[in-house]
Design goal:
With about 130 residues, the protein is α+β, with helices and mostly antiparallel strands. It has one helix at about 1-70, and strands spanning about 75-80, 85-90, 95-105, 105-115, 120-125.
Length: about 130
């Protein structure tokens, strides 16, 4: 009867080990799924921010072109919602060289462009 008791305890220990391994694997998988969900959410938010920045840049470029078409473009500062836009215009004769800085909260970035005064074609555009 003592052999039967030892065999029962060994089987019980083995079953507990298997259950523990399965439990650890499940917890690991669940944590990986949640981590993946969190990273996807962050990626979507970064994509939204990038889309907002692109739309703002297109709007700024349209403003530059319309102002050049109807009037002279001078350096200025603009505040729109939580964006602060500062641009410096250098008249190079046949084209304007414009340095634009966009600030939102703690982040900021700049881009430079050259725009032909006569045709309104942007011949150069680069980020700093």
């Amino acid at each position: 009867s003592s052999d039967l008791l030892k065999q029962y305890c060994n089987n019980r220990g083995t079953i507990l080990q298997v259950v523990l391994v399965i439990f650890i694997v499940l917890i690991l998988n669940i944590s990986l799924v949640f981590n993946n969900i969190i990273e996807n959410s962050r990626s979507l938010e970064r994509i939204r921010e990038l889309d907002r920045a692109r739309l703002l840049e297109i709007t700024i470029l349209r403003y530059y072109k319309e102002t050049i078409l109807n009037d002279l473009l001078f350096s200025d500062e603009i505040s729109i919602d939580d964006y602060f836009i500062n641009y410096t215009v250098d008249d190079m004769g046949s084209y304007y060289y414009i340095v634009t800085t966009i600030k939102q909260n703690d982040s900021s970035y700049s881009f430079n462009l050259e725009i032909n005064i006569e045709t309104l074609v942007i011949s150069s555009f680069d980020y700093q």
